[in-house]
Design a protein that fits this description.
This protein is mostly helical and about 190 residues long. It has seven helices and three strands. Strand 1 (about 100-105) and strand 2 (about 105-110) form a beta hairpin. Helix 1 crosses helix 3 (about 35-45), helix 2 packs across helix 3 (about 35-45) and helix 5 (about 115-120) crosses helix 6. The radius of gyration is 36 Å and the shape is elongated.
């Protein structure tokens, strides 16, 4: 079989050997890539991975060496798993939960809690003013999602919205009565 440059390059990609070694192995194995890899491994040109056995002959593989029990978990591994768990939980809280904005018992929009947190960090004063102003204009807020959809939390937010709505109504009535008094004087 004729050994082509493409075959040599393919073997070099798999085995990280020189051009001459790859060509020699392919000539020895008559162009068979697997046999060439085994040949290079047996010559010591490429390292054999532990417990690896390759053969094209009909013979059973040698039995694997007895395995040692895995070492007990170390403290850094436990800390890493706790850290991963913390970040997974944080991601779930921030992405899978949403703040819903309602007006007149109809949903207006909902935003991920992550967006709310980022907005509060970047523009705290503006966001607080907008949220409070929304309460006085009749908007209501509630959380939804697997972690924040709780009766207690949404009940508190509903009470705050009701209180703000009543205060807004009182202020509007007071302004209207003052306007009426001022109109009668003129």
């Amino acid at each position: 079989m004729e050994i082509t440059l493409e075959m040599v390059e393919r073997l070099r990609e798999k085995a990280s050997v020189s051009y001459a070694e790859a060509k020699q192995a392919l000539e020895y194995s008559e162009g068979n890539l697997l046999d060439a890899l085994i040949y290079l491994e047996e010559k010591g040109n490429i390292p054999r991975t532990e417990n690896a056995y390759f053969s094209t002959k009909d013979q059973p593989a040698p039995p694997p060496p007895p395995q040692e029990p895995p070492p007990p978990e170390t403290l850094p591994k436990r800390a890493a798993r706790k850290r991963q768990s913390f970040f997974r939980t944080l991601r779930r809280w921030l992405v899978e939960n949403e703040l819903e904005i309602w007006r007149r018992s109809e949903p207006v929009t909902s935003i991920p809690v992550l967006f709310l947190v980022i907005s509060l960090v970047v523009a705290f004063r503006v966001m607080v003013v907008l949220l409070v102003l929304g309460l006085f204009l009749g908007f209501r807020y509630q959380f939804s999602g697997p972690d924040l959809n709780r009766e207690e939390l949404n009940g508190v937010m509903d009470n705050v919205a009701t209180t703000a709505e009543e205060m807004g109504r009182r202020v509007a009535e007071e302004l209207k009565s003052q306007h009426d008094k001022h109109s009668k004087k003129q």
